[in-house]
Amino acid sequence: MLASPAYPRKPRLSVAMIGRNDAQRVAATIESVRGIADEIVVLDSHSSEETAQAAERLGARQVHCSWCDDLSALRNRCLENISGDWVLWTEPGERLEADSAAALRQFVDRQADSRAAYLLMIEAPPARGSLCGKQAARVRLAPNWSSLRFSGRAAESLFPAIRAAGMSIHLAPGRLVRDSCCGDAGEKTRRAQCSLKLITMEAEDARGYSPRLLLALGDAQLDAGNRDDAQHAYLQAVAASPRGSTEMLSAYYGLLGALEGGQRMLQLSTCLDALETFPVDAQLLLAMGNCLQAHQRMDLATRSFDAAFRLGKVNVETWHFIDWRAMAVSCHSLALETQDRMEQAQRLLEEAVTQHPNLPWLRRRLAEVLAKREFNAAA
Asked: Structure pTM?
């Protein structure tokens, strides 16, 4: 265990994971961290023999624990078997790419403060029909203190223990990239059903729902396809969360996601309510622009997209578009095109392509505008 921020030796880094019934994804995650880990510990509660063999073949140590309807208990059991100074938590299907791995290992060796816990950026691939992937920062790197233990049967968290220890939280270098299967509809449904059971049990234990649990309930209901129940949970989370908190913002995001396309007035009123508390949130400004566009208020939609690009900010602990500025420009250009302001749309896109040269969908958008301008000129 760590006793002070000064190390008499190079700190040892342990990588921890809760194994699932998927040998290929567990193996891919282990492969991505083998080069920087001093030990890899995989807790197995109900995985197949194939998954266990894959982990052991790659040098990970297996810890067996019976399923107990408590995700925190599983993680804390895993922590009891970890010997490193620092613990990096990963999920099956997440990869730490080579440059991120090197940066993170160097950070642990030279800069990490044992009185702090660290967020890592988690990147998810684009959902079906979306141009842009999303990302969010999560606490994944923490010193191996006996007092730092998870709480909560569902949506387990280190935050209560971190706050009780008086620790600060900072963003560490590097990112974990999820594979496309993490968003598979079948898997999301199965995990949602498990989560709903655990959420109900925790609420019964606590005789009520905390904002954290209400958010988890909304997410699980949405993944299970129960939109009305998800909306209700997110509304409760908005009301129960401290004003201006990450929990409140996440609840607004969830509520907007749960409102179906036909509920345009509800979407618009939700955006207006949320922007009263978070007036420069880029995600909310983008959502507002889309709502206004659906209501054929192109002038106001244009202003909302422009505000998202020029004034918008993101809370890194909420899920947000990775290339949100480029997304704002793309939406802005579409709104301008609808108003026959093609030259302005072209200038916006040319500026954006210069700033984001590695986004092919943005280059395609510029090509579309150029082609339309040429066609109109020739007509």
From this structure: 0.91
